[in-house]
Task: inverse folding
């Protein structure tokens, strides 16, 4: 009886912790604590009607993500955005869901253009049959979505994630969340500015270069693809979008 009770309590505590983590993380990212003192653990527990252990764990997780820090005689303090762990999936999600600046989106895609062309080149050199199949399937999904069968965003992300995986470089594979987050917002911009979804022709050029083992061709095709996105982002003239 006692063991069963413990097993049901732990998942509930974890759910409460992650719920509090998500709520506080979003509020920090949108700046709700910029002009106020961050609540103490006791205050958070009272405000959210959870235990001190739940608030303590959520604060620890936010500290690990770079959003908070504990300072002597100052308590828990919100860190400046420059200290946030931008490669953390939760932080990426919170950033993407706030009112998002075109400048920050450009920064994401500048990172992509430094990473993905080299990942494509490595894929052309190292990809095996399974990798080729994943890339080809990603493009096929994009073509089907363009014709109204499927989600264009999910298909586009699947294609780029397949290329990162085909690089057989574990460090490049770690960029999947960055690429996915950048694409989620980039596609909204390209749809608004260019009135279209991702270019099937440009993606096919990447696919074909990788499949035939053309290292410089894969690199250049991917660079061209992302450079086109940056041009479209710059066409928004540094404005804001939601």
Result:
């Amino acid at each position: 009886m006692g063991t069963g009770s413990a097993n049901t309590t732990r998942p509930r505590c974890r759910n409460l912790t992650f719920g509090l983590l998500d709520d506080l993380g979003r509020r920090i990212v949108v700046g709700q604590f910029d002009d106020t003192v961050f609540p103490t653990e006791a205050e958070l527990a009272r405000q959210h009607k959870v235990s001190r252990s739940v608030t303590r764990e959520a604060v620890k997780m936010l500290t690990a993500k770079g959003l908070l820090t504990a300072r002597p005689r100052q308590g828990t303090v919100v860190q400046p955005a420059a200290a946030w762990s931008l490669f953390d999936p939760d932080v990426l999600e919170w950033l993407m869901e706030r009112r998002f600046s075109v400048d920050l989106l450009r920064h994401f895609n500048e990172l992509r253009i430094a990473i993905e062309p080299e990942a494509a080149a490595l894929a052309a050199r190292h990809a095996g049959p399974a990798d080729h199949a994943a890339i080809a399937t990603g493009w096929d999904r994009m073509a089907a979505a363009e014709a109204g069968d499927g989600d264009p965003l999910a298909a586009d992300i699947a294609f780029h994630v397949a290329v990162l995986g085909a690089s057989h470089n574990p460090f490049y594979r770690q960029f999947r969340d960055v690429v996915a987050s950048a694409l989620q917002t980039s596609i909204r911009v390209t749809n608004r500015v260019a009135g279209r979804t991702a270019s099937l022709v440009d993606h096919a050029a990447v696919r074909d270069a990788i499949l035939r083992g053309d290292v410089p061709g894969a690199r250049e095709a991917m660079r061209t693809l992302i450079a086109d996105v940056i041009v479209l982002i710059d066409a928004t003239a540094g404005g804001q979008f939601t």
The beta strands are 68-71, 75-78, 100-101, 240-241. The first helix runs from residue 2 to 29. Residues 157 and 180 are 6 Å apart (CA to CA).
